[in-house]
Amino acid sequence: MENFVDIGLWIAYILVLVAIVSAVLLPIINSLSDPKSLIKPLGALVGIGILFLICWAIAGDTLNAKAIAAGVTPGVSQAVGGALITMYVLFVIALVGIVFTEINKALK
Hints:
Layout: H1 2-31, H2 39-58, H3 65-69, H4 74-107
């Protein structure tokens, strides 16, 4: 019975890998026919990267005893803090955008 479970898990891993590759590569291949369509997504990625760098610079690198015992370095702590702050900023931006859109639709 364990062999069937192992085979099923390997098939699932392969299918997930195929889905990830398809989800990433097929839109890129499709957009190569119109390279101008890549400008907006590339700008968004650059903007998120700049936002992360700003948030990373803001994040602290202090550690407590549990983090030190777990082997966390100050660099890892700062990177995780930067990622969390970036997520919070993007969440607030999305929330403000949703509220603004709904108010705008209600006024029209």
